[in-house]
Amino acid sequence: MRRSRDHFDALARALGRRKFATIATLGKNGRPHATEVIYAMSEPGEPVCFYVTTRTGTRKVRNIRACPDVAFVVPLARISAPWFPPRAAQFQGTAEIVDGQEEGALRAFNSSWFLRRILSTERRIVSLSGELCFIRIRPDPVIFTYGVGMSVWKTLRRPKEAAGRVAIPADRLFEQ
Description:
By secondary structure, this protein is α+β, with helices and mostly antiparallel strands. The protein has helices at 2-17, 59-66, 103-109, 113-128, 152-157, 159-162; strands at residues 20-26, 32-41, 50-55, 69-76, 87-99, 132-139, 142-146, 163-167.
């Protein structure tokens, strides 16, 4: 059990340091739509969720209102081997649109200088059109990984072992 918690804590730290991801949503017609986003992760000790700042009129918001199921992929670049496919974490989850004043989202976006700048920029864009909102993404209980915790060479020698999964501890899951 402790080993599982250690794996989750290490993955959560890695995800918390990253800021770029791809979110995939489904439109009313069932067609997928994927877009790059900047995200912030909930604070350690809080239920695990990811926040994306956006505006109420975007396609991703319209899609989530029609179907809350999403997929989320975070590349975990290899600084020492940028030519090699990045490590990654991906999950399916449920998204909801929350108000631009949602406390958890504001805490998450105020956690770093970069995220504060993104939020400030988004607020300037919103002043021209639309309303600020956040997408709150609650991952399913398992996050799938590729190459996490493995060297480039081990990944090349044993690619089947590169695929993994990390369970979110029960005390960090959102209650449904």
